Amino acid sequence: MDPIIILGTGLAGYTVAREFRKYDSSTPLLFVTQDDGCAYSKPMLSNALSMKKSATALVNFDALAMEKQLNATILTQRSVESIDLLRSEIVVSVCSERLRYSQLVMALGAEPRRMVLAGSGAADILSVNDLRDYARFRAALEGCRSVAILGAGLIGCEFANDLAVAGYAVAVIDPAGSPLSRLVPQEMGAAFADGLRRHGVRFHLGRTPVAVELRTEGYQIMLEDGGLIEADLVVSAIGLMPRMGLAKAAGMETGFGIRTDNMCRTSAPGVYALGDCAEIDGRVQPYVLPIMHAARALARTLSGTPTPVAFPVMPVSVKTPALPAVVVAPPDSRGVWTVEPPLLQSLRAVCRDRDSGRTTGFSLMGSEAIKGKGALLQEMG
Ligand SMILES: Cc1cc2nc3c(=O)[nH]c(=O)nc-3n(C[C@H](O)[C@H](O)[C@H](O)COP(=O)(O)OP(=O)(O)OC[C@H]3O[C@@H](n4cnc5c(N)ncnc54)[C@H](O)[C@@H]3O)c2cc1C
Predict the structure, then answer these.
(1) Which CATH architecture describes the domain 4-111+240-302?
(2) pTM (predicted TM-score)
(3) Same fold: 114-236 with 324-380
(4) 285 CA distance to ligand 1 centroid (A)?
(5) Are residues 306 and 144 in contact, defined by beta-carbon separation less than 8 angstroms?
(6) Domain 114-236, what architecture?
(7) What are the structural domain ranges in the chain?
(8) Does residue 344 come out as left (phi exceeding 0), alpha (psi in the -120 to 50 range) or beta?
(9) What is the pLDDT of residues 202-233, one digit of tens each?
(10) Looking at the DSSP assignment, which residues form a beta bridge with residue 72?
(11) Would you say 241 and 257 are in contact if contact means Cβ atoms under 8 Å apart?
(12) Cα of 343 to ligand 1 centre, how many Å?
């Protein structure tokens, strides 16, 4: 029997396999991954430094242990080069070996976005999107005292908080006027910046980097307005791009991610996608909770019971102990935010639909405000 082949051993790939084994213990499962197949919690990458956790310490299970747990075969350090949809085969590096599948799951994750910057230091800018990146980041931090972060989104702010707690001087640069600008209204973003400033983070908001020059010691970041920022290390956290190359080359439908219907079915028969690489039913949702929900439904579909994914309202926690936050970003720009006056260093903003008055999103900052999460989730149904 040809195996179900799963491309990728991140949260999406491993969760769908774990869920699948609840319904089917015998169908062969084969993973192909370009990394070492270690299972780890990716969200920990942005708060592991202050906990003094090395890349090795973040590994929960290695590939051998995962093979045993899942009754699967895992081919590590092997990159998939192409998909032959007519023959139901994938072509794998290093020797262009062809492997046949009964069903194929694409759980390929996403690639960090790179800002186009001039200068002799631009190529040295790091991004941290997997364990290998994290090991490189930890090695690069040796001997550093200051770090500049490009991007004040969720990941950039989490790294800023973590680095500041670990004792580094941190500068965060972003063209937007406030941090978390895609998730929360500006007033909340400004309060959030104040919370991190109290822990020593310096923000350079509304400012755009144009070049990074290598200096005898560290780097100099040049801003569009002529400003200069010095740092021993530069980290980019400006977002991710779903890995769609294989799907595009195979002629599958793509949009913001590999397009699927609400059952994770791509435009190619027998081929599914989920996780950071996928646009499921019109939405790319690169977070843990949507992946878990998609994996549970897809596991049932793979085992013979076609099951649509039902996404509930899924809040995202921002892991910034300086000012912890929980957000549900509204699905569109039709909402109107109401920001309540701050109380005991806690802030709350609720987004309601302009026409129906229905609650479509919220943002809670500080431990007091976060206690109201349950009630708001209930309100949103
Ligand atoms: C620093 C950081 C902090 C985060 N914090 C949070 C958080 O607090 N809360 C939250 O909800 N979400 C958080 N996220 C997002 C969440 O971690 C991701 O959405 C999730 O881990 C993605 O899992 P994935 O399996 O889709 O992708 P990945 O984990 O990236 O896995 C992709 C897999 O595909 C393999 N692969 C890629 N291309 C090929 C190829 N050509 N051939 C073979 N294999 C290939 C890779 O080797 C890898 O095994 C965070 C993300 C980051 C980077």
Answers:
(1) 3-Layer(bba) Sandwich (3.50)
(2) 0.96
(3) no
(4) 12
(5) no
(6) 3-Layer(bba) Sandwich (3.50)
(7) 4-111+240-302, 114-236, 324-380
(8) left
(9) 999 999 999 999 999 999 999 999 999 999 99
(10) 29
(11) no
(12) 36
